[in-house]
Design brief:
The structure holds 2 protein chains of 2 kinds.
Chain A (H helix, E strand, L loop, with lengths): L3 E3 L2 E5 L4 E7 L6 E7 L5 E8 L4 E4 L2 E6 L4 E6 L8 E6 L10 E6 L1
Parallel strand pairs in A: 2-10
Antiparallel strand pairs in A: 1-3, 3-8, 4-5, 4-9, 6-7, 7-8, 9-10
Chain B lengths: L3 E4 L2 E4 L5 E7 L5 E8 L3 E10 L2 E4 L7 E6 L2 E6 L8 E8 L12 E2 L3 E5 L1
Classes of the chains: A mainly beta, B mainly beta.
């Protein structure tokens, strides 16, 4: 199956930028996704990028896609305490998710 | 009411018991999925169904079975539960066709926490 890898933990100070990285092996995806899981809840789609794009910006979120290196990143500008959650990347068929990155925002 | 509802939300059982986790959805989606979440391992796909007559194994189907009783219902069974099946289980749905007008977004239930003693 596909490998989707993320670092497990990230800690940033409130107001700083957060960058969460993901590497994947399956390059056939139409879309690549970022999901957010808040404590005690299911996952919700945060943002996505079409596979023929290199970058997508959505308010404080910037998604970068490097298809050559099979690398996806999520940048959160001006990180807030409410951004503390687990963030998962997923490939197009969403059969394979990354391990999730637990983001902790320090006030 | 939630679009994707899982029952029970929490369950403690003993080794060897049969357990069923149920999922129902009001989104009218054809595709339904069962995942389990373990710390440090992320989400792993157990089974998925693209319509009522379609059932497919995912990455970790051993020890599990599913039933798609209707478009809106997809249940997961553990015939003889074992402790390493202790996990948080999620049901999800998605629309059939991925394309310009539909990103294929998954809609998740709130999860069913299962503990096998």
């Amino acid at each position: 199956g596909e490998d989707v890898e993320q670092s497990l933990f990230l800690s940033v100070r409130e107001g700083d930028s957060s960058v969460i990285n993901c590497t994947y092996t399956d390059s056939s995806s139409t879309y690549l996704y970022w999901y957010k899981q808040e404590p005690g809840a299911g996952l919700q789609l945060l943002t996505y990028i079409f596979s023929n794009m290199d970058m997508k910006q959505d308010q404080r979120l910037t998604v970068l896609l490097n298809k050559k290196d099979k690398h996806l990143s999520l940048r959160i500008a001006d990180t807030q305490t409410g951004d503390s959650a687990i963030y998962f990347c997923a490939g197009g068929n969403q059969f394979y998710f990354g391990t999730g990155t637990s983001l902790t925002v320090i006030p | 009411d939630a679009d994707v509802t899982q029952t029970p939300r929490n369950r403690i059982t003993k080794t060897g018991k049969r357990i069923m986790l149920e999922c129902s959805q009001t989104k009218g989606h054809d595709r339904m999925y069962w995942y389990r979440q373990d710390p440090g391992l992320g989400l792993r796909l157990i089974y998925y169904s693209f319509d009522v007559k379609d059932i497919n194994k995912g990455e970790i189907s051993d020890g599990y079975s599913v039933s798609r009783q209707a478009q809106a219902k997809f249940s997961l069974s553990l015939e003889s539960a074992i402790p390493n099946q202790t996990a948080l289980y999620f049901c999800a749905t998605s629309d059939l066709t991925v394309g310009q007008a539909n990103t294929g977004e998954l809609f998740f239930g709130e999860g069913s926490r299962l503990t096998v003693l």
